[in-house]
């Protein structure tokens, strides 16, 4: 798959509402660095189209016939597809957000997200970052923090065993991710360059076999580890 920094970012739209697909196509088509390469009207067709075009980013609706967006995302991630998925929906239900991120989605945006924010989200996700609508960030972090309260002793030990794979510095970064900090905020807190933080996050994701930062945060909170001072 081509680097989004040198070639246009390829996007597939998966939504059962043709008017939504048209609007999204017009918004993204206005950005010179983004190209909508295909569209699909349900999750099953979406998987076929994604397999054909191998896009950089997929905008995936949740509620669709034949195969919903969460199930399609799960199948896509399990298939090993390198395409990044942004769930796009009218609703910001906590359960939908957490299920989407736990199944490997790279972002969750509401359909009323302003056009410039939507374009920026596609850019960021294509570059390897996770993105959430501001309105759902707080609820996601609160849900992640409940992992500490609901974790059993075996879950806690399993999480600590997984985190033991990290170096001391990577553990510091993982704890900061668990607090919901961005790469820039972690950079300031730990006196590291943003590029170094990004490299650490990449290694953390690999070592924990995690698909996104939320999964890292869940592991940190299950292990009952506090963020660095």
TrEMBL record:
Entry GO MF terms: DNA binding
Which residues are annotated as modified residue 4-aspartylphosphate in the UniProt record? 61
What keywords sit in the KW lines? DNA-binding, Phosphoprotein, Transcription, Transcription regulation
Residue ranges of every copy of the Response regulatory domain listed in the record: 10-126
Q: Entry's CDD domains?
A: LuxR_C_like, REC_NarL-like
Q: Which domain of life is it from?
A: Bacteria
Q: Name one Pfam family in it.
A: GerE
Q: Which Gene3D superfamilies match?
A: 3.40.50.2300
Instruction: Please name the GO terms of the biological process aspect recorded for this protein, alphabetically.
Output: phosphorelay signal transduction system; regulation of DNA-templated transcription
Leader sequence range is none
Query: Mind telling me which InterPro entries this protein's record contains?
Result: CheY-like_superfamily (IPR011006), NreC/VraR/RcsB-like_REC (IPR058245), Sig_transdc_resp-reg_C-effctor (IPR016032), Sig_transdc_resp-reg_receiver (IPR001789), Tscrpt_reg_LuxR_C (IPR000792), WalR-like (IPR039420)
Looking at the record, the residues that make up the HTH luxR-type domain are: 159-224
Q: What is this protein called?
A: Response regulator transcription factor
Provenance organism? Janibacter limosus
Q: What is the lineage of its organism?
A: Bacteria, Bacillati, Actinomycetota, Actinomycetes, Micrococcales
């Amino acid at each position: 798959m081509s680097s989004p920094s040198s070639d246009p970012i390829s996007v597939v739209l998966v939504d059962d509402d043709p008017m939504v697909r048209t609007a999204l196509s017009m918004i993204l088509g206005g950005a010179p660095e983004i190209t909508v390469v295909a569209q699909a009207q349900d999750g099953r067709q979406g998987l076929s189209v994604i397999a054909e075009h191998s896009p950089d980013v997929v905008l995936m609706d949740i509620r669709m016939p034949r195969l919903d967006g969460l199930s399609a995302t799960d199948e896509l991630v399990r298939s090993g597809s390198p395409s990044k998925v942004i769930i796009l929906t009218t609703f910001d239900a906590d359960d939908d957000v957490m299920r989407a991120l736990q199944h490997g989605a790279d972002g969750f945006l509401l359909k009323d997200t302003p056009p410039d924010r939507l374009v920026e989200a596609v850019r960021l996700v294509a570059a390897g970052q996770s993105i959430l609508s501001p309105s759902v960030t707080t609820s996601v972090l609160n849900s992640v923090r409940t992992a500490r309260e609901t974790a059993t002793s075996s879950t806690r030990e399993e999480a600590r065993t997984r985190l033991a794979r990290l170096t001391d510095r990577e553990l510091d970064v993982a704890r900061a991710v668990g607090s919901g900090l961005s790469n820039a905020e972690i950079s300031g807190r730990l006196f590291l360059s943003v590029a170094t933080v990004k490299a650490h996050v990449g290694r953390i994701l690999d070592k924990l076999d995690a698909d996104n930062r939320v999964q890292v945060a869940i592991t940190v909170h299950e292990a009952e580890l506090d963020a660095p001072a």
